[in-house]
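Memo to structure team: turn this sequence into structure tokens by end of day. - J.P.
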Amino acid sequence: MSIIGHGWSGKDWQEHICTVLHEHFFGLGLRFQDVPDQVGGDNGMEGFSTDGHGFQAFADENSNNKKERAEKQCRKISDDLPKLYTYRKEWAARLRSLKLRTWTLVVPAFEAKAVLDHAVKEGEKIRAQKLSFVAGDFRALVCDTRPFKGAIARVGNRPTIKLPTRDIEAKHVEKYELRNPKLVKTMDQKLERIPTVRDTSRVIDVRRQYLRSYLYRENMLQSLLGQHPALRERIDELLSAKGAQLANESELDDKPANHRVLQVQSDLKSELSTVARSLNQKDREDIARGSVGWWLLNCNLNFLENDDANGRA
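Reply from structure team:
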């Protein structure tokens, strides 16, 4: 649903602002941590930076004029800022030693001083609660996207980047197989432990699907390196951490091999939706599947040796 005056839907605005904030703080050598809102809401903040700045995104819907928009922005402040107190136990556990210095409502159009005045008053109420995770000089603020012009220029004005990549043909997969026989053998040995793949012809088919996904992922990451290096670095950090985690857990995780592959792929897609919001969904899915392919080629994603009739591996 478009909005009169600025053209953003609430969902798209939230997605856009979180993408911009990731880019903005990364450019400062910091990090922005968003708070998923799929279950139970976001508890009053879209996310926070590692130097103590909290943010809430809000795009008013169907406002007919500036006065109506300002009223909705004030109501949003009244609704969300007190949640820092309502959910104080959750925020204290989440932030730990980090002190919130500001809480800022980020809107597409900031046109009324009354909205800022209202935010300042509500911020004073929170400061008076002397919460363990709130700094003594805490303030609530309001802004549009002008403070983040540099980040917006880097990620674009809309939340989706579509990467140009060349397709992976059968000849590319065959060439990789010929050049990397040991890695291919490693993948085959793992796929043979998956109950639904054990047939030799099926192993070859699934192996080539994962190799195609892996090679496609490599093309995508190469495109990111040239066009969006900061985003590429964030993805690299995630994949490195995830790969290390898988290697550490491989000797302990006794899920059936097919379940584990699907779970790893699903978890990575979810994590990429946070770290790489500016990529469209299909590109995130391709990176996730391609990364599973890479981990199947290497030691990261292993399965326990105790195959049995139930397919546990």
